[in-house]
Amino acid sequence: xxxxxxxxxxxxxxxxxxxxxxxxxxxxxxxVVFVGPSGCGKSTLLRMIAGLEEITAGEIAIGGxxxxxxxxxxxxxxxxxxxxxxxxHKTVYExxxxxxxxxxxxxxxxxxxxGEAAGILQIEHxxxxxxxxxxxxxxxxxAMGRAIVRKPKAFLFDEPLSNLxxxxxxxxxxxxxxxxxxxxxxxxxxTHDQVEAMTLADRIVVLQAGNLIQYDTPDGIYxxxxxxxxxxxxxxxxxxxxxxxxxxxxxxxxLPGGVDLPVPARRVAECARHAGREIVFGLxxxxxxxxxxxxxxxAVVPGRVMLVEPLGSDxxxxxxxxxxxxxxxxxxxxxPDAGIRVGQxxxxxxxxxxxxxxxxxxxxxxxxxxW
Length: 371
Known about the structure:
The chain is α+β, with helices and mostly antiparallel strands.
């Protein structure tokens, strides 16, 4: 068993509380990613699981054993750091073997484990080199190899790819995913990169200011965000938001500039509970485009293109909705051959079945059970 559980975990530095009563259950063999903006507490939470930070209150258990008072070396975890933390004067082999030597493992076992890990990571040809002779990606493989040889209950990764360039990060994401599929260990992974979170995770923990905002699958985080913060943090570009108000009976939503959108029948009952309220309307860029004739799934509103960003595979366009003063602006994702240009008036289609609504004051999602 290698599940990791946190019960009402708190961290405070003096009177400054930075982690606020986190409850979390990570299943054995799961790949869970902590994500959030800088300063949200994700690395602090990881370091408390590792034993590198003391918890102020609460309980942490690994494999069913409470580890609050255990030193890091006794928790049966292995950590991979952002800066690799390799010994510059030791060879790759000795770096990978170091932890086993501290445990006084027999030489034959060390050779077998290092050889097995090097084979998995395809770094057998690097074993006699020093870290200064390696690229950033090779150093990261060595750091992972050092963790693998210990055969821990859980791997903890603290932003391991942030020092790599974009192309190498993409390659290493694939390697980490393959590694998890091969080994099946529990993984807790910290990143500020939402792409890493969405592509690697079985489940994602979204943190804000030391609070757990949502713990869900990548699909749930992206398509059913629990709060405006989560919706705005995921996606590139992120979700569009506009101030809005709910119409009478929950049948329409009024956007800035007098644009009224119809509410799909299946969502009227829930929207009716918020009739007359000021809310926040959200829609992702992929649900905004040129209106198509006869497409009942989209509400058609007049728009004007304010900015165009060609990306090759598609084109981002900032469009102003409606013709009245004070109209709202939203970013849409258009086909490269749509031919949109700045200043052009175009009919904009908004996918009304994909909108999100949030409480104006709390930012909490407004939705029914079947949304």
